[in-house]
Amino acid sequence: MEYKVKDLALAPQGNAKISWAEQNMPVLMLLRKRHSALKPLKGVRVGAVLHVTKETAVLMKAFVDAGAEVVLAGSNPLSTQDDIAAALVEYGVHVYAWRGQSSSEYYWCLEKIIEWRPQIVLDDGADLHALIHEKHLDLAEQIIGGTEETTTGVIRLKALEREGLLKYPVIAVNNAYTKHMFDNRYGTGQSTFDGILRATNILIAGKIVVVAGYGWVGKGIAMRARGLGARRVIVTEVNPIRALEAIYDGFEVMPMSEAAEIGDIFITATGNKAVIRREHFEKMKNGAILANAGHFNVEVWIPDLEELARSKRHMLPYVTEYELRDGRKIYLLAEGRLVNLVAAEGHPSEVMDMSFANQFLASLYLVDNKGKLPLRVMNPPLELDEMVASLKLESMSVRIDSMTREQEEYVKSWRHGT
């Protein structure tokens, strides 16, 4: 086995956590059981850059059981859970991940994946996809296909496609209904506040919460802020349709330049850079708390905060205090990185069950259709999405109606009128 993790002695602790996740991920466990005997991925090398959590471990074990050789690196320098990494090495996964990596160490791990010449590439943020297209085009031509799990990563891959540079088909798992509607909304909505509360132990009730961005992630965060008793929930947006939706969902909408003066807690969820920057820091009240739920640590523009601060200190493990020249103090959580994965454990297993079932099925689909798919970023086939939803309902003992033959014919015909 080739790997680099913090400490293999942590494996028993990691295995216990993985067992907990397995009990709460019935869809993926069913798919894993179905395909462990058939070995549809026998001989296929899978390279994955994902947050190394107990939920990710269940997915990696599913790939191993399906016959694949699996290589894994973390998709964020601070999100790896070292006990999980150790447990996966024991299971036969080549893991290159540990918590607290430098930027150079992070990219070293990605290069190690490339050395294994993966045929299926799973990514969370598109760093591996981008690295392959920038520096390893010889490998790109041998790749069957890839998947991408984040909005940020899909945006990057769409840019590659627009420029005519995409070298293999990619399934945007992020765009599966059973991913973005549940993982992004319910998973991130809950786990973002889990991270904020673990980091600070503040009371959300009575606070003014500002949510930057009203995509599926922002919707979930705003909903949970209201549920936790926030006095006001303010949404900032650049998209007029989403802004209108936020208003009709009962939230206030205003520019960040106005929200900056009144917010107690600011949470970014846009996938863009410098959403909160110098002009906003200069207006914030003393004690403002900043957290990011987007993939990269660029939404809260830290260079501006560093320039404005006369001093800086680490108050708590995931809380950094910036004292500005006028004496105001602003608190940045998790170094501006994904607060739910740095200060907490990421999404609940029940939500990742659907997301990772989509990852697994998308990978099987790529292998089954090797050489037949266009060099594009594609949404997952609807039938796979519906399969995941049906299995999830079944696991929850929920039954639904089915159409009669007459109804099926009715919805397919144009002849029935008034």
Automatic annotation (TrEMBL):
Any single GO BP term: S-adenosylmethionine cycle
Catalyzed reaction equations: S-adenosyl-L-homocysteine + H2O = L-homocysteine + adenosine
Family (UniProt): Belongs to the adenosylhomocysteinase family.
PROSITE patterns, alphabetized: ADOHCYASE_2 (PS00739)
E.C. number(s) listed in UniProt: 3.13.2.1
Protein name: Adenosylhomocysteinase
Domain S-adenosyl-L-homocysteine hydrolase NAD binding: residue ranges: 184-346
Record key words, sorted: Cytoplasm, Hydrolase, NAD, One-carbon metabolism
Comment on bound cofactor: Binds 1 NAD(+) per subunit.
One Gene Ontology term of the molecular function aspect: adenosylhomocysteinase activity
